[in-house]
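Consider one such protein record:
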Amino acid sequence: MSAVPVLLFTGVMAAGIGFLYSSGSSDSSGQDIQPVSFSHARHAGQLKVDCLYCHRFAAVSAAAGVPSVQLCMSCHRNLIEENAEAKTLSDYWNRQETIPWVRLQRLPDFVYFTHEMHLRTGLHCADCHGHVERMSHTPRAASYEMGWCLTCHRQRGASRDCWVCHK
């Protein structure tokens, strides 16, 4: 009978510690708040801006990159009406500061991946990132885990040799 309170106490403590640990280390929507609220639905959807216009490095390098303030302002400085987010963008421009975008997609260091190689094989951005032209805010990818990649490689007849993707 005396073991029940000890087990109950141990269970409550383990659950509490587990909750505190996971809430500090897990992804949360608060981590993904960008300094400028950018709508892919507006830019890629309504305005039909091509992904590679803003993510210019995707076709020529490992990383897609994020747009510079200068690139954003190449369009925005010609707008007559400014909303709050365009004003925030202009403020970065006027202060000559880069926008501290929050990185949403990250693969482990031991994974070798290039956007360039995947685009050259005929994949489209939406094949991996989903239809961002319908998204008001860009969410983290649901999964870029090995099984997801292997399924894609298998479906397309791409190499499944470990050393192609792992260093």
In short: The chain is about 45% helix and 0% strand. The chain has a mean pLDDT of 84. The first helix runs from residue 3 to 25. Residues 44 and 52 are 10 Å apart (CA to CA).
